[in-house]
Amino acid sequence: MHDLREGQFKIFFGGSYRENWAADYTMSVSYSERRFVLSERIDGRWKAVGGDEELCESLNSPYCPKTVRQYFEGASESFEALHECIRRGLPVTKLGEFFHSTGNPITAPELARVLMDDCGFPLLGAYRTAAWCCDDICASDVDIAHLSALQPRTAQVVSLLRSAFVNSASVTCDSRDSFCRFPYGAVRQGEEVKLSFRQTGGRISAAFLVVYGNESRFELPMEHSGRVWFCALTLPEIGAYRYCFRIESVESTRWLCPDESGFIGKLFGTECPGFRLTVFDKDFDTPEWFKSCIMYQIFPDRFGFSDDGTAQRGVEYHKSLGQRAELHASIDAPVRYLPREFEKEYIPDDFYGGTFKGIEKKLPYLKKLGISCIYLNPIVEARSNHRYDASDYLRPDPILGSLDDFDALVKAAENMGIRIILDGVFSHTGADSIYFNKYGHYDSIGACQGKASPYYDWFDFKSFPDDYRSWWGFKELPEVEETNSEWQDFVVTGENSVVKTWLRRGAAGWRLDVADELPDEVLTLIRKSAKEEKSDALVLGEVWEDAVIKESYGLKRNYALGVSLDSVMNYPLRTALLDFIHGRTDAYALRNFLISQQMNYPRPLYYSLMNLLGSHDVERLRNALAADTDIRSLSREKQLALDFSEETLSAAIEKEKLCAAVQFSLPGVPSIYYGDEQGMCGVNDPFNRLPFKEEDNGLYEYYVNLSNLRTGSPALSVGEAEFSAPCSDVLVILRYIKGGDAFLTVVNRGGKSHDYEVNCVNAGRGIVKGHIGAISAEIIRL
After folding, report:
1. Is 513 annotated as catalytic?
2. pTM greater than the 0.85 cutoff
3. Beta bridge partners of 195
4. I need a labelling partner for 10 at 20 to 30 A (CA). Which of 377, 488, 596, 758 fits?
């Protein structure tokens, strides 16, 4: 592209060219007898700074002929844009992501010439890219004879572009642009959305909006004004819809569907997956208090400890039932993961003795961290240390303490402005429970005692008593029949149901374990029941994928459509950030992911997403950043054999800071898994659930600073958000409240520093320029 040094380009004039055709019908162009000048942008204007003296004098003169000046500036900005595209790490086909030229009719043909002659684009590819970038693809106000003397090849390209404009259908559409789609993002049922595209060439005889989803499909004819085609759409039913445009032209039928980005339109010869459009319940909203929270997830057995004998007494209680609970002598004792000599397989009933009182003692630590919501993994009586095998839904596990201890914790937290949500494990119970009572440990008539049990119809016996439906085949977790009216009354809808009772006891909401296993109708009942008891109760689901388009057991789920859940766990964010940090994707992919969630999730849910980087179900964040491998797919033995050197673990601390800066800058609720703020290590279960320990690595104070920033201004929690990527290594997040605060988060994963320039006009801050160091993150108040 003839660039000599940063910001300087060689622009050629005159001479002649020759088309060279190869046997495979590809063409190259060779030039001869040309003059050149060096161009450089000085004080916002292109100037000739070297080369042919006569040309330089003419170009820098106020009397320079119009066409000469237009060609010089069009060529200069084309080369500059292509150079910037390479610097950003973008393919040239994505030039329109950042380059938009207006007012110069020669920019389009000169850009198309360079794309064809220097970049190997076919004519139609060059035409479409130039049409995306330039407002005048036909170079309508150009003196062809004069331009031919300046650059004969560019003059020829003008003719090619004009021919393509007439004969080849060409359009532009970007669903992120309010011109192409308004309003932005998901819409409420019954809300009108306006969809359009711009015709940039060809003769379109008719266009139709094609909408499908929610078991329906229909077409609407589109109107046009000049070269803008548009249609208004109102959808009365909630659903995850898609749309595309069927375009009829003189030569063919084409389909305008999104490219791999999901936003930018591309013409296809056959119908491809359309643009996404989420329609959610017209009355949907989520608790306001949660949108401004910072969450902290606690695995109760491993976080806060008390020396009053509570845990020991609880262990003795479990032993009195006939269970084999063990209490480690110290929190430094290694976690057990192998079966004991009398066991065929590992049973997680070794405890470290975390208690409600221990958590209460740690509240000042959490308050300093900025925490305003604690999510407790299950607390009800159960045989295992994780307590996802409930034995008694209405009683806290005595190892943790009593109901009075729980009440004291809730009240102490409330006095510090901290709410507590609980983990609801309702798709299954424990086999060793009041309800199933497989081992006869409980003084109850469980389902295993026969049809006389009040719980017998909760479960699905294929062959009584040993063959029954269980969660993913784990016989210690018998699945319940969630449609059973007696189960629903006991767990969900009854006046003294499990859902209502714990809310009455002070919980602020529920996180629902394995939401996939609960029918939408039951999830809706749980949400309704919770809000009957406490109008601002939170109901959040464990969902690992995109909650809008999730399917399970062959059914489309309505998690994100405003009827069954307030929010979900944002595991896709964790995956996207790890992929970015490890170099599996780049900043453009991460930007597109963030925009996709913003566009497709209903705003009330989007601002309530549980934005997690760690949890009890995945390896510790520090280990995930230190090892570029899928730890979760390895056996426990192979996980333990992984070599985490001090060097990689130290580097992981710096990478974690990058992830946390993004996490705390996004709409939604940042969630810290206990100990991640201390840089705790651990591969998967049970090694990611070790007793909490404080480390001296500066990470805790980093999180404290992030929390102080976020809680110090509503712009970082409930403000507007815009995402951009100045280059492949740098992500930028703009947060602002119109007329109020504005913040810019800049994250550089790369090993070298970068300059950046960000459009902050919508935040009232104009164009912001800056510099970001290698492997660093900054959150800047504008």
Report:
1. yes
2. yes
3. 181, 231
4. 758
